[in-house]
């Protein structure tokens, strides 16, 4: 029997195809998804991985056999699937393994209106039902199976995004876009069509084997080609999308990366101009600059744990207008509280194109501190190392601790967070300080304790 403990994660289903996830399992997940959500209709999309169309079709068979009407929208980005779920008002399933290597695939699921399905919001029940079906066998189809239809929503998705950002007055811009052979190569040409942009495409060919580099712009080595091309072209900016194109990273005209915290602050200011007095969610390892900018623009910042399920829940609870994470996930109330890197990219283009300065000058107001970025260390005893770090800093005057997510230690001129990975024996460190020298000093001290 398949080992679902290795396949079902906190927020999605993800594993190696076909060793851990195959068509038979996908069909069982489709049936279980319908039973748990009690959906009468669902929408299904998939990325460009070779295994994705077959897995999506198998999931649809399972759903139809349990009486649901399934609409397959075919090739799409994950945020396009969220759009479909929100627009059609039905639960959805996206077949992708995001930035993972080619041999992986997975399922991101949501309820109607793009509401997340995670371990505590239905995924545990879906897993239990699949395990039961594996043991007992699949029940007979319902008396009246559902239907299967196909529908293309790419143009509608693009039109909706463009309705949320005013790009009518932007100056002509030259932008290099690295799609990483992922779904950005499918969505960018349609979304950007008609805008005064000279687009220089990098790796737009849909290829789930990722022949050029991993579709994971969080890793600096995967931005090297984009940075070089921005400089060579004299472009105004560069954009890099991950494999399923729900995250977007930004590079300025010098080829330097713009931190997702700075983008969060920039977009927050723009969203607060549309929704005065609104709430903005940020996770606890975004920069100090994010809550500062939110307050300066009349908004209320709310700090939360890392992870899209926490962000989306907090957005729903507070009615927040926007949320951002250090990992370049950006969430919008106007997009069903779901994350969309494409909408964040349109905000950057609008902000840049309606004033004369280069991007580096524009974002300087939002990038105020020195940050380490996320540093991962392999640690067997995560709890013991975290306790040792707390003990080492406990005697320092003016230092505070909180455990909202891992351990955050804060002083007047710096802060750091250490938190364990949910899936690997890792401790993740993020440090920020008012100057580079202080950041490096704290970073090296904490790393010494982590790796002792």
From TrEMBL:
The keyword Protein transport is annotated on this UniProt entry: no
Obligatory cofactor(s): Mg(2+)
Keyword terms: Isomerase, Magnesium, Metal-binding, Phosphoprotein
Positions of the Alpha-D-phosphohexomutase alpha/beta/alpha domain: 6-132, 155-255, 263-369
Domain Alpha-D-phosphohexomutase C-terminal stretches: 374-447
Pfam families, sorted: PGM_PMM_I, PGM_PMM_II, PGM_PMM_III, PGM_PMM_IV
Annotated family: Belongs to the phosphohexose mutase family.
Protein name per Swiss-Prot or TrEMBL: Phosphomannomutase/phosphoglucomutase
Source organism of the structure: Streptomyces hebeiensis
């Amino acid at each position: 029997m398949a080992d679902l403990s290795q396949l079902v994660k906190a927020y999605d289903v993800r594993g190696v195809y076909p060793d851990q996830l195959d068509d038979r399992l996908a069909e069982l997940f489709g049936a279980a998804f319908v039973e748990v959500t009690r959906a009468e209709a669902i929408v299904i999309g998939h990325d460009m991985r070779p295994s994705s169309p077959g897995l999506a079709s198998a999931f649809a068979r399972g759903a139809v056999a349990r009486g649901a009407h399934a609409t397959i929208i075919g090739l799409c980005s994950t945020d396009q699937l969220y759009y479909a779920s929100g627009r059609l008002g039905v639960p959805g399933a996206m077949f992708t393994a995001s930035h993972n290597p080619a041999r992986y695939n997975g399922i991101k699921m949501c309820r109607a209106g793009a509401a997340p399905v995670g371990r505590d919001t239905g995924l545990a029940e879906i897993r239990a039902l699949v395990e039961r079906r594996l043991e007992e066998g699949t029940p007979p189809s319902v008396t009246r199976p559902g239907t299967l239809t196909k529908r293309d929503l790419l143009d509608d998705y693009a039109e909706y995004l463009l309705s949320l950002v005013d790009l009518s007055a932007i100056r002509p811009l030259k932008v290099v876009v690295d799609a990483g052979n992922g779904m950005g190569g499918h969505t960018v040409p349609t979304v950007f069509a008609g805008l005064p942009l000279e687009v220089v495409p990098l790796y737009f060919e849909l290829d789930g084997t990722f022949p050029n580099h991993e579709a994971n712009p969080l890793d600096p080595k995967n931005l090297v080609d984009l940075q070089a091309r921005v400089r060579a072209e004299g472009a105004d900016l560069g954009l890099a999308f991950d494999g399923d194109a729900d995250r977007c990273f930004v590079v300025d005209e010098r080829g330097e990366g713009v931190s997702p915290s700075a983008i969060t602050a920039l977009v927050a200011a723009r969203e607060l101009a549309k929704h005065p007095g609104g709430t903005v969610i940020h996770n606890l390892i975004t920069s100090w600059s994010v809550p500062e900018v939110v307050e300066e623009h009349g908004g209320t910042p709310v700090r939360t744990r890392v992870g899209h399920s926490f962000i989306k829940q907090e957005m729903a609870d507070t009615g927040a207008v926007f949320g951002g994470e250090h990992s370049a996930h950006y969430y919008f109330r106007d997009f069903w509280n779901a994350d969309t890197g494409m909408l964040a990219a349109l905000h950057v283009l609008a902000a840049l194109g309606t004033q004369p300065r280069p991007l580096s000058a524009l974002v300087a107001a939002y990038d105020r501190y020195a940050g380490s970025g996320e540093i991962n260390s392999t640690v067997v005893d995560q709890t013991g190392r975290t306790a040792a770090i707390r003990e080492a800093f406990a005697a320092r005057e003016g230092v505070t601790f909180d455990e909202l997510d891992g351990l955050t230690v804060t002083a007047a001129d710096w802060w750091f967070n250490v938190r364990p990975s949910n899936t690997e024996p890792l401790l993740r460190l993020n440090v920020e300080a008012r100057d580079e020298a202080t950041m490096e000093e704290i970073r090296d001290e904490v790393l010494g304790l982590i790796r002792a």
